[in-house]
Amino acid sequence: MVRIRVLVVDDHRIFAESLAAALTAEPDVDVSAAGSGPAALRCLERGAAESRPYDVLLVDADLGAGRPPQPAPLREAAAPVGAPVGAPVDGIALVAGVRAVQPGVRTVVLAERDDPRRAALALQAGAVGWVAKDCSLSRLLTVVRGVLREETHLPPALLTGVLRELTAARKHRSDSERLVESLTPREREVLRCMVAGLGRKAVAERLFLSPHTVRTHMQNVLGKLGVHSTLAAVALARRAGVGPADLAPPSNGVRAG
């Protein structure tokens, strides 16, 4: 019998242990538990290294809520690619982190309440299910087995709200893409440096430009994007799918114009 490897991630120990115990009673399910995002990532890494990868991740939507801030390295480990340094390791951030390091793992979010906006964010981050924490064991098992057949599971009551949120997100992305397309190639290059977190001086050194020229490019970028700060420009760029500049050392010292 092929066993389904499930990892429960919840910082409420009693809930995590109770759920793990209930799932373990199933003959085709093998369950482990982790109490935080970083701990979950370590479990996933260890499972992959031992050639016993996890199939399904069940993660608390409110993971880490009310807990003291964690050290930066731990926060960053489970934050989505491109998230600000210091972003909290909540359940949705963990979903994105898992998708980045082990895209084959199917992630289902366990939630105490229906929330169309957060459910849409979870799906955008890579989740394939949103399930109430108080659902029946049979319902949860149906979801676990279903997502392994490439199914996506949402409560019927959430469908309309989630579709509305996803449609709005697509519109924002389209608008953002249109604004980014209005930039010149050099301005887009400067924007990618901004997304990478480089300041004016670093951008000047990176692109072999004078700080004054970079300042002009940055002002043009903000103006064309219709924003008033670098942070807002970076957020818009991310929505448009603009990635950070490659910070590897340039291969030659030819000065760009």
In angstroms, what separates the terminal alpha carbons? 64 Å
What fraction, in percent, of the residue positions are helical? 40-55%
Largest beta sheet, briefly?
5 strands, parallel
Q: Order of helices and strands, N to C?
A: EHEHEHHEHEHHHHHH
**Low-confidence regions:** 68-88, 250-257
Strand residue content? 5-15%
Shape call:
elongated
Strand line-up of the largest beta sheet = 2-1-3-4-5
Count helical runs.
11
Q: Tell me, rounded to a whole number, the average pLDDT.
A: 82
Could you give the count of β-strands?
Answer: 5
| Helix/strand class | alpha/beta
Rounded Rg: 21 Å
Task: Provide tags for this entry.
257 residues, alpha/beta, five-stranded parallel beta sheet, disordered C terminus
Could you explain the architecture of this structure?
- GO terms for molecular function: DNA binding.
- Keywords: DNA-binding, Phosphoprotein, Transcription, Transcription regulation.
- This protein has 257 residues and is an alpha/beta fold.
- 51% of the residues lie in helices and 11% in strands.
- The protein has eleven helices and five strands.
- A five-stranded parallel beta sheet has the order 2-1-3-4-5, sandwiched between helices.
